[in-house]
Give the backbone structure.
Amino acid sequence: MTEHIVALPEGEICPAKTYLMRVCGISSGLWKRIKHSGTFTVNGMPAIAARTMLRAGDIVSYELPIISSVIPEQLPLAIIYEDEDLLVLDKPAGQLVHPTTREAHGTVANAVLGLYAARGTQLDFHPCHRLDRNTTGLLLIAKHPETQYQIAKQNTLTRTYLALIEGLLTPKAGTVDAPIARALPSIILRRVSPDGKPARTHYKTEWTNGSHTLLRLRLETGRTHQIRVHLAHLGHPLLGDDLYGGSTELMTRHALHSAQLTLTHPRTHENLTVTSPLPEDMARILSL
């Protein structure tokens, strides 16, 4: 059950749709689901959402049916942060975020729904961004569709990654501003192309021994394989990234780690920063 306490100036009234969309930050699609859910109440009394006027102090509540084909599974989860709105996980290498037609089990989505089921909570899976199968680190998940929508709408989520490449990138800090498109006929590969979608990656050298370099990267956009494609475009693909020309001599997966997430909390409006240390397989290369 989702609840909102109406915060309006005394004596002012507002349509439920306007209040929920403008003040609570729900999407038009979510409003339609609420309107047709049959669970909309005001101060505990059933109401027709589309005809309801709200006043200061009213308590609005509703339930949304969970329509998901993902099967809950009891799987290990490394929870880094959690509150009533958000869940941040530290994802291992080799795990998909979403099930596919070929792999319906063992994903982060299965594990999260398994966690909710074990707790007896009726929640669905609402990831706020994506991570490739072999990318490790922080994954932000909203517990409610309203929260997911607010984070996307506010555009305050900043994602910082750590990556290992061969050689030394020159200059040591900069921005890659290069559009990315599909590398047809492949449905997986991406490439830098003038007819692609805008893509910007900011990078800074954190450590180097001349042979290998650890980069800290911040995404300004979120294109598929963005960091992998941009570094390959610069002639320095990720270690282990054989899809884009990286050496697999020292790494058996691409050396990319989601190290920090920073956002404005959608409920408290406070800044929230979560970090994850470099995984062992990447840290080992720094000690060679």
Notes: The two ends are 53 Å apart (CA to CA). DSSP finds six helices and 18 strands in the chain.
